[in-house]
Write a structure and sequence with these properties.
transmembrane helix, 15 helices, MSC_TM_helix, mechanosensitive monoatomic ion channel activity, transmembrane, MscS_archaea/bacteria_type, mainly alpha
């Protein structure tokens, strides 16, 4: 019996050694095969290392799994249940999760291939279209429209423009002996595209965006297959928010593009109109803007900025950003108030300039001009909403100060005349008190004369009494 036990133990040891040798061989083969396989997959290759590091890591993981299986077989051979049970549980968990890993990897691989194909399709389609030329057409839409309006409104030709076009025509005409010859370095009918580099950048950018969106969707699907809800659920919610925001973002971008085209069109049209009616000349004569600055250009830029702010408010409302919308609304309200206040102040300077031209008296002209400027500045600042109480106080102080100055000037300058008038009143009252009968129906002046000649007045009174 003891011999049989020894032989059975030796047999088990021999089988264990054989199992370990076979496990070592299989693990080495699997490690080598996985390393070679990974190096052949372009998606798993790294720059400069050709995927060798990733292949080595994957091969080591596969070899360790093979070794784990071999050790479990050896433990089963010796009936070591206490050690075998935890390892079997670990191995069951690994092999139970392995289909999910394979499925997630397969989904990610298919999604990666699809994303690469979609990226190449988008880049090829966009490279076939001259995007810079298309955007330049949108930019020149307002210029063309205003050019038509300007050509219809201006009947006289511009000699400078005629000379410029003639010079361009002379530069563009080939010289004798060069007619019909293609440019150096090119072929007839094959002109180089100067916008190729810009088109390539734009197409690469859009292609990478498409690739990234598809990869994100595929990665979230792979996480759902793995069953890792702690990662997949927040990622899915984020993806849903992102996908819901894409149409809104595109619509907001289109709205801003429309606003840019409208601002460009109306700005150019307004600039041509202002230049046509002589706004620059009139404002330069007044001296409101610095020398060399075009007033019509400044007004046009302000109008364009206001239009873009208006469309930006609409875009932020569409995107659902209430804070940014409120800020832009405040900017638009304040900008409108400032613009109208500045227009009022400019009108005051215009009126002051007109007063200076029509009134020749220097003193009166200066007084009226500065009064008009001060009045319109106060009105403009009040409309802007800048320190209403200070403006009211200053305006009231000016009015009260003017009234007080007039009163003081009259009081100090007319002091002697006022004294004479008061003396006459006092004398008249005194004469009336001394001889009240002589002042019945008479004026104070006649009473004064009566007191000077008592006898004459008495005889005159008697004769008048006899006549009556």
């Amino acid at each position: 019996m003891q011999d049989l036990d020894i032989w059975s133990v030796l047999m088990k040891v021999g089988l264990a050694i054989v199992i370990l040798i076979v496990t070592w061989i299989i693990a080495a083969i699997v490690k080598w095969a996985m390393g070679k396989l990974v190096t052949k997959v372009p998606a798993l290759q790294r720059d400069g290392s050709n995927g060798q590091q990733i292949g080595k890591s994957v091969g080591q993981i596969a070899g360790l799994i093979i070794w784990l299986l071999g050790l479990i077989a050896v433990l089963q051979l010796f009936n070591l249940d206490q050690v075998l049970t935890p390892l079997q549980g670990l191995l069951d968990g690994i092999f139970g999760f392995l289909p999910n890993i394979i499925g997630a990897g397969f989904i990610f691989f298919i999604g990666y291939v699809f994303a690469k194909i979609a990226k190449q399709l988008v880049q090829t389609a966009l490279n076939a279209v001259d995007l810079t030329k298309l955007t330049s057409k949108f930019r020149s839409l307002g210029d063309k429209a205003t050019g038509v309006a300007e050509g219809a409104g201006n009947a006289q030709p511009n000699p400078d423009a005629t000379q410029q076009y003639a010079a361009q025509g002379q530069q563009g005409m080939p010289s004798q002996g060069q007619q019909g010859m293609p440019p150096q370095g090119g072929h007839p009918g094959q002109a180089p595209n100067p916008n190729a580099e810009a088109n390539a950048k734009i197409s690469n950018l859009i292609g990478n965006l498409v690739f990234g969106v598809i990869i994100i969707v595929v990665a979230i699907s792979a996480l759902q297959v793995l069953g890792i809800k702690a990662i997949s659920d927040p990622a899915q919610q984020m993806l849903q928010i992102f996908l819901n925001a894409i149409p809104v973002i595109i619509a907001a971008g289109i709205l801003l593009a429309i606003g840019f085209v409208i601002a460009k069109f109306l700005g150019n049209l307004l600039e041509q109109i202002l230049q046509g009616i002589g706004t620059d000349k009139a404002i330069n004569e007044i001296g409101i803007v610095p020398e060399g600055t075009s007033a019509s250009n400044v007004i046009t830029r302000l109008v364009q900025v206001a239009i873009m702010i208006f469309f930006a408010i609409m875009a932020t409302k569409m995107l659902g950003f209430p804070e940014i919308t409120n800020i832009l609304n405040e900017i638009l309200d304040l900008g409108g108030s400032v613009l109208f206040g500045a227009a009022i102040i400019a009108a005051g300077f215009l009126i002051a300039a007109i007063i200076g031209k029509f009134i020749t008296n220097n003193l009166a002209s200066k007084v009226l001009r500065y009064s008009a400027i001060a009045l319109f500045i106060a009105m403009g600042l009040r409309y802007m909403g800048l320190a209403d109480s200070i403006i009211n106080l200053a305006f009231g102080a000016v009015v009260i100060g003017g009234a007080a100055a007039a009163a003081l000037a009259f009081g100090l300058g007319g002091r002697d005349a006022a004294a004479k008038m008061l003396d006459k009143v006092d004398l008249a009252e005194a004469a009336e008190k001394t001889n009240p009968d002589a002042f019945d129906g008479s004026t104070p002046g006649s009473g004064t004369n009566t007191t000077g000649n008592g006898g004459g007045s008495g005889s005159g009174g008697a004769s008048s009494a006899n006549e009556s």
